[in-house]
């Protein structure tokens, strides 16, 4: 009986340590993510002081992430909507 209790307790302790390890890893990653966000903000700020428009830069970044076919399709739709609304 005592052996089973000891085994269960060891198993619980092991699971608790694993959970603690996961939580600590997540905390470190969140901290790294926040640091990266700050670095990105600094780069945008630096670009802005050089005369670049951060809003437009974000749009360019989004376009660069897209698959080329998807981007071409979206640009065609945008042109079609502009034409339909008389926006040139």
Task: Give the helix/strand layout.
Layout: H1 2-49, H2 54-65, H3 68-85
Give a verbal description of the structure.
This protein has about 90 residues and is an all-alpha fold. It contains three helices and no strands.
CA-atom Rg in angstroms:
26 Å
The helix-and-strand class reads: mainly alpha
Taking pLDDT < 50 over at least 5 consecutive residues as the criterion, the unreliable ranges are: none
Which range best describes the helical content: under 10%, 10-25%, 25-40%, 40-55%, 55-70% or over 70%?
over 70%
**Number of H- or I-type helical stretches:** 3
Strand content: under 5%
First-to-last CA distance: 83 Å
Largest sheet: none
Quick take:
It contains three helices and no strands. The chain has 88 residues and is mostly helical.
Characteristics:
3 helices; single chain; 88 residues; mainly alpha; 2 domains
